[in-house]
Amino acid sequence: xxxxxxxxxxxxxxxxxxxxxxxxxxxxxxxxxxxxxxxxxxxxxxxxxxxxxxxxxxxxxxxxxxxxxxxxxxxxxxxxxxxxxxxxxxxxxxxxxxxxxxxxxxxxxxxxxxxxxxxxxxxxxxxxxxxxxxxxxxxxxxxxxxxxxxxxxxxxxxxxxxxxxxxxxxxxxxxxxxxxxxxxxxxxxxxxxxxxxxxxxxxxxxxxxxxxxxxx
Length: 216
Known about the structure:
The protein is mainly β. The chain is built from 2 helices and 15 strands. The strands form 2 sheets. Strands 2, 4, 5, 6, 7, 8, 9, 10, 11, 12, 13, 14 and 15 form a 13-stranded mixed β-sheet that branches. Strands 1-3 form a two-stranded parallel sheet.
């Protein structure tokens, strides 16, 4: 059975410098069927271990570790071939571990390497920005929670129905038509009818990052 792209849980990228927090159980956990977290590696006490990166920002990451780690432990993370970032464990909750990087990283650069391959696809990126949506010809204000080439997660009320057509307009971007694929509380997941152009989306994310820097 072919899985809908919205039913796949992937690594989330954030444009902020905050270290990802342990938010507990994901509110969409009940509707996801597959996880495709990015595989990374960490070096602790001279030993290399694999990990699954769940969330990554300029300032740190949330990962699933396969060895016991304690708060305050120093480690080195390999984010891509040849790039190593030193960090410190800031929190531990079960298998989930938060790591604060000693130096900020360039998330856009990491994203560009994540998209290499014969069929490059952009992962989800947290955005937290105002979005205009049109549902049934009516205009509504919403908040974009995360976005990829193939879809977007929105915080919107009133909540549209599953399979309802929707048009999403990110600030400064061309409107994109899609369909609501899942909904829970005030959150909905939208699958775009066609992939957003990769170059345009990467450029837009870079602008959003600069906006965050100026505001911060």
